[in-house]
């Protein structure tokens, strides 16, 4: 008789003093991604979810399956087995991609470049779904490779903006001997560009690139400028498709951005409110053509921008709009991960608190929140939403399951 046991050791969280947020129990150094196999019947996972204290007890989930004695457990996927052993707090954490500084509780511009024992403790308190690395975190090839290894060992998305052209974190650092590329609107072979970018990103420990830009630059005044592949929807679609193919062939996750398209927007959402004055049909006939192409080529992420489209979203930015998320899911057929653009941009912070924005985005249909302005407030907002039923456990589980399935698919856990 052959038996299997899957043991998942999940990470406790606790709060520290000083730069920390509170007090808690001693952290476990065991990452979410560690899984071993053996035999036994399933033991119940004991979890404690305390909203105010933000304490989560150390949990060990053991699930056993006998191949000669069929059960429901046998039909569960690996992702479902992991999900079954997670506490509510651990699930909520998986919905956030943040900077190292946010994990540490420091100022945004106090860039961290090394892993310390204190930082490891904070990572144990905040086992988020992913980390976003910026230029200030990057010093040298050896340094960033070691830095990223800590996040990878914990089963996290390790993400960067490496678009090519002017928006690069690695190629923009003179300490790195990597290919440099022209802006996207001058690139003839995006497959070659992103194949090379993927190769060096993988070597430095990244598994996710927030690229390619999928917007269309309709004219010279476009906010997106030379970051877009061009002004013709079909031409941009072809180049986006090649870009996604390059990432997929290289094993690096990519993200189409910035849905539904920044090219004809009235302003830059980094600094405030931006309006796209088009109907949903007009979007489908232009802006959304490159997004559909990238989706058809199996892009794992779509990043939704903070663009307001009054005829579709009313006064809401796309990141908070159920109607815009529905277009992405239903009209374009996207089944992957929906991640928001950064929530510390002016288009969000000028009108919403971090807890409001996080809950609204998740209710609208987003799966992951990128860099909330106040991480702790955003987390507390989601905890409260789950506790009072605003965000149901079924909705939470569905999002986390998608995160886990994606990580498993790309070998992250």
Molecular structure report:
With about 425 residues, the chain is α/β, with parallel strands linked by helices. The protein folds into two domains: about 5-65, no CATH class; about 160-385 and about 400-410, Alpha-Beta Barrel (TIM Barrel). The chain contains 15 helices and eleven strands. Strands 10-9-8-7-6-5-4-11 form an eight-stranded parallel beta sheet. Strands 2-1-3 form a three-stranded antiparallel beta sheet, with helices on one face. Helix 1 (about 80-85) packs across helix 15 (about 395-410) and helix 7 packs parallel to helix 9. It is globular, with a radius of gyration of 21 Å. The two termini are about 30 Å apart. The model is unreliable at about 1-30 and about 35-70 (pLDDT under 50).
Q: What's the N-to-C terminus distance?
A: 28 Å
Spatial order of the strands forming the largest sheet:
10-9-8-7-6-5-4-11
Counted by DSSP, the helix tally is: 15
Shape: globular
> Briefly, what CATH class of the largest domain?
Alpha Beta
What is the helix content? 25-40%
Radius of gyration: 21 Å
CATH fold type of the largest domain: TIM Barrel
Mean pLDDT score: 85
Category from helices, strands and their pairing:
alpha/beta
The CATH superfamily of the largest domain turns out to be Glycoside hydrolase, family 3, N-terminal domain
Strand content: 5-15%
Main beta-sheet annotation = 8 strands, parallel
Topology as a string of helices (H) and strands (E) = EEEHHEHHEHEHEHEHHEHHEHHEHH
| Count of domain modules | 2
How many extended strands?
Answer: 11
Q: What is the CATH architecture annotation of the largest domain?
A: Alpha-Beta Barrel
Poorly predicted sequence stretches spanning 5 or more consecutive residues:
1-31, 33-72
């Amino acid at each position: 008789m052959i038996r299997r046991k899957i043991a998942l050791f999940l990470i406790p969280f606790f709060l520290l003093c000083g730069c920390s947020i509170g007090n808690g129990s001693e952290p476990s150094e065991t990452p979410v991604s560690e899984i071993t196999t053996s035999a036994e019947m399933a033991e119940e996972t004991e979890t404690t979810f305390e909203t105010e204290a933000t304490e989560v007890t150390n949990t060990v989930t053991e699930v056993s399956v006998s191949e000669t004695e069929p059960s429901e457990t046998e039909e569960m996927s690996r992702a479902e087995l992991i999900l079954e052993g997670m506490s509510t707090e651990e699930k909520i954490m998986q919905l956030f991609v943040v900077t190292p500084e946010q994990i540490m509780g420091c100022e945004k511009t106090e860039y961290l470049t090394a892993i310390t024992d204190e930082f490891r403790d904070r990572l144990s308190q905040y086992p988020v779904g992913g980390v976003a690395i910026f230029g200030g975190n990057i010093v040298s090839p050896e340094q960033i490779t070691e830095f990223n290894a800590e996040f990878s060992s914990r089963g996290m998305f390790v993400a960067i903006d490496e678009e090519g052209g002017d928006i690069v974190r690695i190629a923009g650092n003179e300490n790195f001997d990597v290919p440099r590329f022209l802006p996207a609107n001058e690139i003839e072979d995006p497959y070659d560009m992103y194949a090379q970018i993927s190769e060096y990103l993988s070597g430095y420990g990244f598994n996710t690139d927030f690229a390619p830009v999928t917007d269309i630059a309709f004219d010279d005044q476009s906010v997106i400028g030379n970051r877009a592949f061009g002004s013709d929807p079909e031409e941009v679609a072809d180049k986006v498709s090649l870009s996604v193919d390059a990432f997929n062939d290289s094993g690096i996750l990519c993200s189409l951005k910035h849905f539904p398209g920044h090219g004809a927007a009235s302003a830059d959402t980094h600094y405030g409110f931006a309006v796209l004055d088009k109907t949903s049909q007009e979007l489908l006939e232009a802006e959304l053509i490159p997004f559909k192409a990238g989706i058809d080529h199996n892009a794992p992420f779509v990043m939704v921008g903070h663009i307001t489209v009054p005829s579709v979203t009313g006064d809401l930015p796309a990141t908070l709009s159920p109607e815009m998320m529905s277009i992405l899911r239903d009209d374009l057929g996207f089944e992957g991960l929906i991640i928001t653009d950064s929530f510390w941009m002016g288009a969000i912070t000028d009108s919403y608190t971090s807890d409001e924005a996080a809950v609204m985005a998740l209710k609208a249909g987003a799966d992951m929140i990128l860099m909330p302005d106040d991480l702790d407030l955003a987390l507390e907002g989601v905890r409260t939403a789950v506790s009072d039923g605003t965000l149901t456990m079924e909705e939470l589980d569905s999002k986390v399951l998608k995160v886990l399935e994606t990580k498993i698919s790309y070998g992250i856990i």
